[in-house]
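Postdoc handover notes: sequence design on the structure in folder B. Input tokens:
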């Protein structure tokens, strides 16, 4: 993976023409089309739908985009080309040989009262190289989610300016990653767990 600061300096959040009424299916089609020439089968897109609300039903559609590690930057760039992304949170999971990160967004232009489009970009980061490019210079509000995943899973975010601990004590042994299920996690170090409780 190349230097994330360099990669993301090319992302410029452009003034978008509001595309009222564009569906999640259209966004998925446009994203797949953007990757056709490079082997678009490498990314997988699923669409789910949920309806909430009692008096006024609100329909939410979510795009679940699984991308290989090496295409992560390109997928995020393609989403920015489609619309401005509103960041929510990064969730993580220890998946054996990988840490799976889910970047949760919504599409800004489509966020209307009765029509919402959520986007989750899912990427498996191999434990043998736990490094992801930071999105901080494009989405400053992502800092706390990146720091949390760094602290709890050990994922380094290349280009993240502040890597100080947020949740664990200052004197914490940073070799111990509390949310990991392997030898780096707390389950293998019961004495550490007792000190925390």
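Designed sequence:
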């Amino acid at each position: 993976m190349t230097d994330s600061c360099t990669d993301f300096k090319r992302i410029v959040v452009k003034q978008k023409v509001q595309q009222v009424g564009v569906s999640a299916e259209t966004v998925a089609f446009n994203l797949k089309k953007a990757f056709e020439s490079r082997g678009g089968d490498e990314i997988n897109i699923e669409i789910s739908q949920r309806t909430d609300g009692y008096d006024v039903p609100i329909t939410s559609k979510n795009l679940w985009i699984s991308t290989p590690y090496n295409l992560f930057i390109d997928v995020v760039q393609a989403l920015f080309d489609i619309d401005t992304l509103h960041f929510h949170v990064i969730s993580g999971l220890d998946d054996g040989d990988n840490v799976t990160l889910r970047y949760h967004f919504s599409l800004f232009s489509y966020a209307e009262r009765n029509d919402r489009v959520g986007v989750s970009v899912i990427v498996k980061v191999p434990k043998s190289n736990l490094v992801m490019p930071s999105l901080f210079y494009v989405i400053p509000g992502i800092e706390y989610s990146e720091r949390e995943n760094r602290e709890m899973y050990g994922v380094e975010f290349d280009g993240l300016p502040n890597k100080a601990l947020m949740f664990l004590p200052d004197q914490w042994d940073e070799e111990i990653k509390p949310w990991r299920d392997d030898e780096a996690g707390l389950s293998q170090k019961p004495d550490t767990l007792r000190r925390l409780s």
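Context for whoever picks this up: The first helix runs from residue 4 to 9. Don't rerun without checking with the PI first.
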